[in-house]
Amino acid sequence: MSLFSALRRLIGASPAALPGNALYAGVVAEARRQDWYLAGEVPDTMDGRFDMVALVLSLLLMRLEREDSASARQLAADVTDRFITDMDGNLRQDGVGDQVVGKHLGRMMAALGGRLGAYRDAGDDDAAFGAALAKNIWRGSPVDEPALAYLVAEARRLAARLATMPEAALASGAWPAR
C-alpha cells in the first residue's frame, strides 16, 4: 500500500474505525458508570474520572498481556494511543497551553504506568489490590470500607468479564456485558 493510499484511508476513516477507538470508547463508558461514583464513592472530579479510566484501561491492558500475541500487543498500543489522544484533547479543552501539554501528558502516562504496575503486582490478593485502589483513587483521603470493598469486587468482576472475551471480540471493540 502506498503512503498516499494509507493517508487517504486514515483521513477518510471515521473516528470509530481507527484502531483501538471502539475499544477505548468501551473503556471510557465503563469508567463513567455511575455506580463507581455512587456505591464505590469514587470522587466525581477530574482526578477521580482519570483514576477510573486508568483503572479500567489497566484491567484491559492486563487482559491483553495474557494473550501474548503480536495482535494483542498492537491492540494494547492502539488503545493506549487513544488514551493519550483523549488526555491531550482534555488538557487542551481545559486551557492547558501547547508549551506544557507534553509535561502533563508525561505525568499522566507515568500515573497510568504506576497504576498498571500496582494493580498487576497485587495479582489475586484482594487486600493488596484494595490498598492500591485506596492509594490511587482516594490519594490519601480516608476511605469508606464498604465503598472500597465495592470497588474491589466490581473491578474483579470486570476483570473476569474481560477474561472471557476473545481477543478478536475485543479487537472489534466489543465490551463485556455486565
What does this structure look like?
The protein is mainly α and 178 residues long. It has one domain (24-171). It has nine helices and no strands. It has helices spanning 3-12, 21-31, 34-37, 46-67, 70-93, 98-122, 126-137, 145-164, 167-171. Helix 4 packs parallel to helix 8 (145-164), helix 5 crosses helix 6 (98-122) and helix 6 (98-122) runs antiparallel to helix 7 (126-137). The chain is globular and about 40 Å long. The mean pLDDT is 86.
Helix-strand category: mainly alpha
Total helix count? 9
Fraction of residues in H or I helices: over 70%
Largest sheet: none
Shape: globular
Residue stretches low in confidence (pLDDT < 50, at least 5 long) are none
Q: Mean pLDDT, as a whole number?
A: 86
Which features does this protein show?
single chain, 178 residues, mainly alpha, 9 helices, 75% helix
What's this model, at a glance?
This protein has 178 residues and is mainly α. It has helices at 3-12, 21-31, 34-37, 46-67, 70-93, 98-122, 126-137, 145-164, 167-171.
